[in-house]
Amino acid sequence: MKIGILQTGHAPDDLTSASGDYDAMFRQLLDGEGFTFETFAVVDGAFPADAGVVDGWLITGSKHGAYEDHAWIPPLEALIREIHHRRMPLVGICFGHQVIAQALGGRVAKFDGGWSVGHTEYTLHGAPLSLNAWHQDQVVELPPEAQIIGQSDFCRNAFLAYGDHIWTSQPHPEFQSSFVDGLLRTRGKGVVPPDQLQAAAATLDQPTDSDRIATEIADFFKKVRT
Question: H or E segment at 174?
Answer without folding.
Answer: none
